Structure to design on (853 residues):
């Protein structure tokens, strides 16, 4: 009997499938009049990036509410996607692929705001490229997505030969070199040791730091990877101590056991007044890091302008942050949420001018003269322009933050050559 | 001797049961084939034309990418079932073969080896003809991936031959850790970038259907566009079907019966003349071949090989699929793999969304997945140790009264009891005859 019931189920499913074909719906046809369009966000909503991603989604929603959920004639709604899994606690390749296909399959979706992680973008961009569909990122800092970096990059991410990717943040190469300039000009450091977390991102910033540091006359004593699974880094730092550096550059993210790394650096090399510690934006936006006594005095760069500074400047960004604080009772975590809004602003500007199709939006952002946002409208407090050829943003701001009194305060804006 | 390995105690198999056995398998296979074809037609033809009100929930609850991922897990679980379910060798490092398969796929279907400026192109898709690196046909890569994995399966098998139980598990666990670590840290071995580290190798080539496109009317290139996903589903289904076929046929054969004998009593099997070394190595090799096929398919599915995706938890996850589904029973393992993979990649999340939508809460259901799986596993072990769709043999062994108790009264009643208990073991003609 049991055996027969399986056959019945199988048959029932196939009959249901064929009968569904018969009642084909006319729902796929669309008229040109005031369309409802969906902007997707694609961020890691679980694990250690949860706070920043949640704040990004909330801030974007708040912004959309403020502008009445409209771009030109189009009604815009937001649809958040999660590219992380609970099991990994970070972005997951299979989930990224799945999301990319979901973006394409969901006909209302006009463009994607995301992803947070460059590795995830490298999987999603080729899929969206075939559609084609625009992705504009608030946080991908890996250079290879838009410019020549590793062999085959960036062309291999665009199989159709046409670009469909843009971003509103500066790339790692600028961040690493800005940190090197800051170390040599402001801190007058001479001997630096570099460690990286062995990730795409970490190696990228570390390499950029090494290259620029050598140009600036800093002796780079070594560039080692730290193993994120190691219980402690005493041995690593003992080895580094023997070389007697006056600075340590940490190229990587706090996610990958950064807490232990910072702790062991303190224990072996001494506090941050003796051996200066510098890090990239992978060490920004983590309340846990701010709490650590060992992190005090650490310099962190951020590929953009810090929220705190933007709030002081007032303008569109400041107002939005004030509204957020009024609604949720706290400032958004990290500096990326405002960049998420900036990416959405670029999207809205493009959608307003476009014909409401995916290709139309791509043509606006990556065709003609590209998209510009005026300084008084842009939440980043200055005029930004997304280059139509590369998809990179012209605003190459690097902020240097100093970890003090358990928070990362804005120290100075570092110019980038 | 237990009842199960002694042919003497059994009545001769009647024609009726033999026929029944055939029909059970045939019905399972037929309904699965029907399901696959129906699903293909549905996703390829019907779903794109449905109204959003219908298509929306379908693409949320059962997106074709999730189904494809489930199929890859089915292939993996069938592979592990050969090692754990058939031969009874506990393998906690199965993810190693998955990783090796994926990387073989990525090496042979990407521009990673960019030093070859003109590239080596054999049967690759026309869209990648001008790229450097090695670009082989997906079908050839499947075979190569399977062969490489078989080799590694044997390599891993050798040192474990003398080990049993916990010690075997620990060694396989070691291999499962070493190999993904090698891929993670292999970007500067002697100054050479062998694996591209955590950056992984992306993207891999689309599938070139070649002659198949002339015969079956498939698109010439099955790649990243969403329209090609149903075709990937079809290809992965064929791969899974091959694995099912091999699993079923091999089980009834000489090799399969020696595996079962080893699983139930290694010492007795050896005494009866089952060649332990050969049988165990073959189990590892066959399991690894399936892992290799699944690995190459996974690289194609995700669009690259990324070292971070091969974690210890994957090995455990596949093992849970085998155990929950029913160790040794192919249909059980398929069901277990499909259901658990779906719950993991889509089900929990959508359930969470629906739940939160109804009650206006913000409970993150997916973050409880290990709690849920753990509870499930504990409950299963308490109430249904043999799995969802148990293999008859396992069921009989588990239901058999404790042996020591009966031995203590000095009687040899096991034989009678066991054959009384349930129907004759399905799909397993007298294993003791496996002896040469």
């Amino acid at each position: 009997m049991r055996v027969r019931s399986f056959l019945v189920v199988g048959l029932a499913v196939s009959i249901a499938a064929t009968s569904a074909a018969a009642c084909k719906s006319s729902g796929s046809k669309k008229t040109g009049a005031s369309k409802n369009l969906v902007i997707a966000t694609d961020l890691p909503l679980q694990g250690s990036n949860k706070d920043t991603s949640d704040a990004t989604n909330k801030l974007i929603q708040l912004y959309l509410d403020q502008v009445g959920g409209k771009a030109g004639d189009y009604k815009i709604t937001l649809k958040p996607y999660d590219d992380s899994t609970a099991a990994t606690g970070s972005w997951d390749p299979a989930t990224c692929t799945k999301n990319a296909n979901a973006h394409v399959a969901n006909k209302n979706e006009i463009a994607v705001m995301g992803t947070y992680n460059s590795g995830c973008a490298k999987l999603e961009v080729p899929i969206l490229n075939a559609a084609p569909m625009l992705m504009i990122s608030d946080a991908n800092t890996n250079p290879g997505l838009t410019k020549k970096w590793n062999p085959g990059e960036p062309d291999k991410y665009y199989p159709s030969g046409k670009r469909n990717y843009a971003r509103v943040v500066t790339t790692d190469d600028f961040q690493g070199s800005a940190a090197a300039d800051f170390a040599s000009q402001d801190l007058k450091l001479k001997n630096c040791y570099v460690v990286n977390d062995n990730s795409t991102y970490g190696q990228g910033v570390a390499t950029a730091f090494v290259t620029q540091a050598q140009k600036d006359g800093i002796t780079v004593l070594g560039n080692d990877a730290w193993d994120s699974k190691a219980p402690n880094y005493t041995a690593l730092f003992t080895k580094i101590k023997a070389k007697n550096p006056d600075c340590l550059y940490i190229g990587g993210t706090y996610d990958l056991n950064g807490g232990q790394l910072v702790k062991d650096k303190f224990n072996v090399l001494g506090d941050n007044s003796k051996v200066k510690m510098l890090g990239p934006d992978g060490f920004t936006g983590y309340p846990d890091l701010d709490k650590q006594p060992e992190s005090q005095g650490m310099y962190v760069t951020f590929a953009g302008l810090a929220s705190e500074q933007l709030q002081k400047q007032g303008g569109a960004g400041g107002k939005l942050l004030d509204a957020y604080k009024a609604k949720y009772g706290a400032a958004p975590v990290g500096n990326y949420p405002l960049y998420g809004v900036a990416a959405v602003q670029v999207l809205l500007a493009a959608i307003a001018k476009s014909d409401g199709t995916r290709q139309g939006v791509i043509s606006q952002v990556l065709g003609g003269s590209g998209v510009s946002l005026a300084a008084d409208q842009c939440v980043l407090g200055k005029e930004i322009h997304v280059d139509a050829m590369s998809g990179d943003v012209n605003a190459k701001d690097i902020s240097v933050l100093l970890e003090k009194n358990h928070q990362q305060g804005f120290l100075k804006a570092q110019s980038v050559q | 001797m237990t009842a199960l390995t002694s042919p003497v105690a059994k009545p001769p198999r009647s024609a009726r049961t033999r026929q029944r056995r055939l029909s059970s398998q045939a019905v399972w296979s037929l309904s699965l084939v029907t399901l696959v074809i129906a699903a293909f037609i549905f996703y390829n033809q019907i779903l794109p034309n449905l109204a959003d009100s219908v298509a929306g929930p379908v693409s949320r609850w059962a997106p074709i990418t999730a189904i494809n991922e489930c199929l890859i897990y089915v292939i993996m679980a069938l592979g592990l079932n050969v090692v754990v379910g058939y031969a009874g060798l506990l393998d906690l490092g199965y993810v190693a073969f998955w990783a090796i398969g994926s990387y073989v796929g990525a090496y042979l279907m990407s521009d990673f080896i960019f030093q070859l400026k003109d590239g080596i192109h054999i049967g690759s898709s026309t869209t990648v003809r001008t790229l450097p690196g090695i670009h082989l046909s997906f079908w050839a890569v499947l075979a190569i991936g399977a062969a490489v994995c078989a080799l590694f399966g044997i390599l891993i098998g050798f040192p474990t031959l003398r080990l049993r139980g916990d010690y075997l598990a620990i060694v396989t666990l070691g291999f499962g850790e070493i190999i993904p670590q090698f891929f993670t840290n292999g970007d500067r071995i002697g100054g050479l970038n062998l694996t591209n580290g955590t950056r992984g190798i992306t993207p891999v080539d689309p599938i070139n259907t070649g002659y198949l496109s002339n015969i079956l009317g498939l698109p010439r290139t099955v790649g990243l566009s969403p329209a090609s996903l149903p075709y990937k589903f079809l290809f992965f289904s064929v791969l899974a079907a091959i694995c099912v076929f091999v699993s079923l046929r091999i089980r009834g054969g000489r090799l399969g019966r020696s595996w079962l004998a080893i699983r139930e009593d290694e010492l007795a099997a050896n005494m009866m003349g089952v060649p332990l070394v050969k049988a165990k190595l073959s189990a590892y090799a066959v399991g690894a071949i399936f892992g290799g096929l699944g690995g190459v398919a996974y690289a194609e599915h995700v669009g690259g090989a990324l070292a971070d995706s091969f974690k210890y938890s994957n090995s455990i996850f596949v093992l849970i699929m085998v155990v929950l589904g029913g160790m040794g029973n192919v249909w059980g393992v398929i069901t277990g793999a499909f259901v658990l993979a779906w719950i993991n990649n889509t089900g929990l999340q959508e359930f969470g969304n629906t739940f939160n939508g109804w009650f206006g809460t913000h409970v993150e259901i997916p973050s409880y997945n290990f709690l849920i799986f753990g509870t499930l596993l504990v409950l299963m072990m308490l109430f249904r140790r043999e799995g969802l769709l148990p293999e008859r043999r396992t069921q009989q062994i588990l239901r058999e009264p404790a042996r020591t108790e009966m031995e203590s009264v000095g009687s040899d009643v096991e034989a009678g009891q066991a054959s009384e208990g349930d129907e004759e073991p399905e799909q397993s003609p007298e294993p003791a005859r496996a002896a040469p």
Observations:
- The two ends of chain B are 19 Å apart (CA to CA).
